[in-house]
Amino acid sequence: MKKLFGTDGIRAVAGQTPLDAPTIYAIGLALAHSLAAASPSPRVVLGMDTRESGSWIAATLTAGLVAGGASVESAGVITTPAIAFLTRTHGFAAGIVISASHNPWQDNGIKVFGPDGYKLPDSTELAIEDEIFRRLEPGASNLPQRVLGAFGIDVHSRKTVPAQTVPPPVNEADRADYVRFLLAAVPGLSLDGKRIVIDCANGAASAVAPQVFAGLGGEIIITHASPDGRNINENCGALHPEIVAAQVKVQGASMGITFDGDADRALFADEHGCVVNGDAVLLLAARDLQARGLLTNSTVVATTMSNMGLEAALKRSGIQMLRAAVGDKYVLEQMISTGAALGGEQSGHIIFTGRGTTGDGLLTALLLLDIVHRCGKTLSELIADLKVFPQVIVNVKVREKRPLDTIPAVVEAILAAEQELADSGRVVIRYSGTEALARVMIEAESEPLMRHHADTIANAIRAELGI
Questions:
Q1: What distance in Å separates the CA atoms of residue 134 and residue 172, rounded to the nearest whole number?
Q2: Which residue in 31, 66, 172, 325 has a CA-CA distance of 20 to 30 Å to 242?
Q3: Is 201 within 8 Å of 222 (Cβ atoms)?
Q4: Is 262 a known ligand-binding residue?
Q5: Is the same domain home to 205 and 149?
Q6: Are residues 230 and 374 in the same domain?
Q7: Over the stretch 191-207, which tens digit does the pLDDT of each residue have?
Q8: Whole-number Å distance between alpha carbons of 321 and 312
Q9: Cα separations in angstroms, 53 against 33, 228, 264, 267, 397
Q10: pLDDT at res. 163
Q11: DSSP code of 170?
Q12: Where are the alpha helices (DSSP H) in 185-307?
């Protein structure tokens, strides 16, 4: 079982294990050695979001990569899907993103893409982890103090955060290349006559979205695009879609678009200021692809968190919905195995095979705008028949992720919910892959029943594992 890599890379509080400087250096060293096994002198492209810890993490990681025989090119502040695109189109052995996505500014993370632009398979991540732990064993000679000393790092304390570090110089052409790729996906798109509000979450989209939308016409209102290192995702972005929804109403806009910190997902607001989540985007995109004969096997891959209402709406259109484990990585795995052309998550990660290898908020936004443009209808009209079952998600902070099926009180509460809801609801309980949380999700036709069982299960988890 992996100990460092979660469903979306390595993530923690910046400066604390496993994002303390010696561990980051070991990650770079182990990754370089893994890459060198397939490609001598591997080239790596590196990008980051806007967190203040990004620069020193980039510099420390670069030191490990270079010590392991790799060369590193920086794309600077750029979105996660942009790094996936650059990796596969520019012949890099790997792409790395320093980001904690939707997490608060104190956190950060390391995501890795292989040369094909896909996230690394679990087996590769496990092998990299093995080397990392070997490098960090007491007395190991693979973290030379003379190298880390240049970053002000004391190997023995494992607590020092580098005070002055310099990441590789930024190649500005990388961002321009990615913008050209995005615009090529929607030839002929015009936003003339429309007013669009775009929330960049004070994250990576701040450096890209203004360039993407500059030449598409219409009135584009960019918000939350002034990052200061600490305001990423703070009362803005895809974590708070109600913010852009409110702005749509204030501005009398046609639509709102909101990204998370690294812009690998997007949520929307329709012309009435109602939030439109990833389930609705999947429905709209699936019907459009099907109408054009591009929805392979009439199949869409969603996750266990997608609403039963989406499944029903797709079925009415003759489209099958498969469910994967939560995480766009696992959605993509099932898409590849089934040949599906479309998949995604309720949270806004949408994957179009043939266009990208990971969720891409900017690409999703452009393709959705293109559908609206071609149909000549509003967003609310296009998804009007999506009848959503009441759904509640309760997050419980936990001190450890013990298997829930080993805790009698939790098992009893889950069983009671499943028996009472039967065919009129769903119960999904899982640990977050990126945070110390247990997520309790229940859907049901009866909202009071739904909330009762969600609270009962959450309280059982809290009593046993809560902080």
A1: 37
A2: 325
A3: no
A4: yes
A5: no
A6: yes
A7: 999 999 999 999 999 99
A8: 9
A9: 25, 11, 20, 26, 24
A10: 47
A11: B
A12: 209-213, 241-251, 278-291
260 in a known ligand binding site = yes
Residue 405 marked in a binding site: no
Tokens 């892959």 locate to 433
Instruction: Show the tokens assigned to 434.
Output: 């990126």
| Judgement on whether residues 191 and 234 belong to the same structural domain of the protein | yes
Tell me: do 384 and 415 sit in the same domain. no
In whole angstroms, what is the distance from residue 466 CA to residue 279 CA? 31
The whole model's pTM is what? 0.88
311 contact partners, CB below 8 Å, separation of at least 6: 302, 321
Q: Which domain holds residue 375?
A: 185-388
| Inside any domain, residue 218 | yes
Same structural domain, 22 and 146: yes
- What is the domain count for the chain? 3
Segment 169-197, tens digit of pLDDT: 888 899 999 999 999 999 999 999 999 99
Residues involved in catalysis: 101
| 144 residue type, one letter | P
By DSSP bridging, strand 342-344 and strand 350-352 are antiparallel
What dihedral angle (degrees, nearest 10) is formed by the CA atoms of 252, 254, 260, 261?
-70
The annotation status of 101 as a binding-site residue, yes or no, is: yes
